[in-house]
């Protein structure tokens, strides 16, 4: 407060001594706080923005990146699908590709080696292509 305001308040209240002592105590405590070194708030390493960015990168590398790789491998497998490939559907049906319809995405599988039993499945229902090495391991596992 300015001296003029202090004098006018003291003369108005009629308690100039009490007011002056309160003012002096307040100035003394303010001087104590002014002398204490103030902690400068620096940039915190764990600020909320850093935490959010960290969680995003963690989510990306744990969830999104592996899913992208899986989809890319699946697309590569579907592109390499051709007639006479041994395949297994996602339902567990084993068969040999008899025909592929590129326009509507339907694959005809021959499921019976000796007969003409055929089924039609969506191209997306092919779970894996069984390579000759996989077929050999499969025969060894059943015997």
From TrEMBL:
- What's the protein's topology in the membrane? Single-pass membrane protein
Name the UniProt key words of this record, in alphabetical order.
Cell membrane, Membrane, Protein transport, Translocation, Transmembrane, Transmembrane helix, Transport
Which coarse location class applies to the principal site listed for this UniProt protein?
A: membrane
Q: Where in the cell is it found?
A: Cell membrane
Mark the transmembrane ranges.
Answer: 45-65
GO cellular component assignments: plasma membrane
What domain of life does the native source organism fall in? Bacteria
UniProt GO BP: protein transport
Similarity-based family: Belongs to the YajC family.
Cited PANTHER family:
SEC TRANSLOCON ACCESSORY COMPLEX SUBUNIT YAJC
Write down what this protein is called: Sec translocon accessory complex subunit YajC
């Amino acid at each position: 407060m300015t001296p003029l305001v202090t004098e006018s308040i003291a003369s108005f209240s009629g308690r100039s001594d009490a007011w002056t002592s309160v003012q002096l105590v307040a100035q003394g405590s303010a001087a104590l706080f002014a002398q204490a070194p103030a902690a400068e708030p620096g940039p915190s390493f764990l600020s909320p923005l850093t935490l959010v960015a960290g969680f995003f990168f963690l989510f990306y590398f744990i969830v999104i990146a592996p899913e992208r790789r899986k989809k890319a491998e699946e697309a590569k497998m579907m592109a390499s699908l051709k007639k006479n490939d041994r395949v297994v559907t996602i339902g567990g049906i084993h068969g040999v590709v008899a025909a592929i319809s590129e326009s509507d995405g339907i694959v005809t599988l021959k499921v019976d080696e000796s007969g003409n039993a055929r089924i039609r499945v969506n191209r997306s229902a092919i779970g894996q292509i069984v390579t000759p090495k996989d077929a050999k391991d499969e025969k060894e596992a059943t015997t």
